[in-house]
Amino acid sequence: MTATRRSDRRPADGSPVARVCVDVGLAHLDRPFDYLVPAELDDVAVPGTRVKVRFAGQLVDGWLLSRADDSGHTGRLAYLEKVVSPEPVLSPEVARLARAVADRYAGSLADVLRLAVPPRHARVEKEPHDEQPTPVVAAAPDAVDPRGWRDYPTGPALLRALTDGRAPRAVWSALPGEDWAARYADAVAATVAGGRGAVVVVPDARDLDRLDAALTSVLGPGKHVSLSAALGPARRYRAFLAARRGQVPVVIGTRAAMFAPVDRLGLVAIWDDGDDLHSEPRSPYPHARDVLLTRVQLAEAGALVGGYARTAEAQLLLETGWAREVVADRATVRARIPAIAPTGDDPQLARDPGAATARLPSLAWTAARDALRADLPVLVQVPRRGYLPSISCAECRTPARCAHCAGPLALPSAGGTPACRWCARVAAAYACPECGGRRLRAAVTGARRTAEELGRAFPGVPVRTSGREEVLTEVPGGAALVVTTPGAEPVAEGGYGAVLLLDSWALLTRADLRAGEEALRRWLAAAALARPAPAGRVVVVADGALAPVQALLRWDAAWFAGRELAERRELGFPPAVRMASVTGPAEAVADLLAAARLPADAEVLGPVLAEEGRERMLVRVPRARAAALAEALHSAAGARAARKAADPVRLQVDPLSLF
After folding, report:
1. Residue 353: cis peptide before it, omega within 30 degrees of 0
2. What are the Cα distances from residue 154, in Å, to 169, 270, 642?
3. pLDDT tens digits, residue range 608-626?
4. Phi-psi region of 196 (alpha: psi -120 to 50; beta: other; left: phi over 0)
5. What is the pTM assigned to this prediction?
6. Which member of 86, 224, 639, 644 lies 3.0 to 4.6 Å from 250 by CB, making a disulfide possible if both were Cys?
């Protein structure tokens, strides 16, 4: 390209004005800016391309959103400095989606686009590829076998609707032992058979590998790509370009795939939407479920929200009539579930008075012993990783804290030295500040210590661990003890003979709005790996009168989700209402809320101490006023940014955890 002096530039002949989203994540600059397109860039400056422009005297990145014949700006317009790449990586559908997500979460378009489009990889862009998109050819209506959904009365109808090109919206409760990846592959195949594309989002890499294998089996190789941050820059950008160029009709991935560009989108699906991995930790903190459901509205596509458990948000979709329920009848559920029993009910206490306080009551020990004798594996779920993540004085039971930062002390191994979990300082000469005692005892037992204790209780039985250090995908079907943390449970060949859910108090007593919902989600995910009764047993070390335990015993996540939603509606908590969290220094939080033109029916709650030197305030409005709340907070944040306020404030709409 021939270089042109800035003074010699002339505007392009056609649509000389470019509307550019400047990559500056400041709230008061969250709007397109107009630039002139020089004649030498007319052919390559197309909507969706990356560009560089002069902004506030600096050369910054931007996105060319559209071209126009004139500008409403009365002053002099600057020229585009450079088109970084002629590849239009930002599709119009994703641009509209990004704007809608930014508005819903009171964020800026630039921040959302950083999440939507992966960083450029120039070498990958230059690789040879087919210039013509691969057309998605509709198949015959009977091309997709609905028999995998036969246990769900409305399941085959869901597949028929997708094959016919309609847009069904469903909330699916999977049966225990269900091959959920195969069922999602059926739904995707039905969508492709109808001549449309699909996007499926799963929580983690293990689920992604499982879904990838299922789709390859159903669609054949080369018909889908996987998007995940773990792929690395080159592979991720190559997969993204394949989708953007229309070379594949299906994109699957972790939350990185929620903005994936897919032509003729016919289905968006998410598995296990209650997993907090679906929540983006970067501003404006969107949740994959909400992004995908926004895509449903914009693209008029179908939706499938599935899991063993059900969130209050999914229940709200059903109660408002937005989606239909896909569940098995109770007779099928009873035939598929394992035998589930708690340890804190009256009959157990009569036989074993120590069951209320024992970490491994006789019922759990007996279930494990019987499964091992039958040459079946046993799964043991422990909520805490490590060896002894919390210890206390053996004499007076005072929690052991760090002398420097007051953080909790932990023991890394049987012969290890106590160390602080916050600052990592070693406390080799620890003495209790209350009684002077130097002996320590376990306050909380981790997965590695549990594996050690079970190994002594069942000598000669192999003990495997799956957790943060090493996550197992599968284990053989023979007798073995498998100790895992939640979310790291491997699949056993033929299913587990027993599943033990220990330390239930660690999940149920968390200071979190979703503590019960999260506990049930983790229990159901583990219990779903057990064999059906009578060969499979599940023992939960908890009081059977608790609502999450009752839902587990009956395998009735729908009942618990309805109960949770009703309670939150009565108490005014999400998703029955819309909430925003404002966190920062006290003066900055007060300044932002004072400047915000909140809706008349908004309720400000707080402040509460979030962390040292920072506080949090909540703003609550009815769901009908959600857009007004987001706009008011975004405008106030923009006003503070324009004044160059020094104190940072974190603004988060509908935070995953409120406490």
Report:
1. no
2. 12, 19, 54
3. 888 777 899 999 999 999 9
4. beta
5. 0.90
6. 224
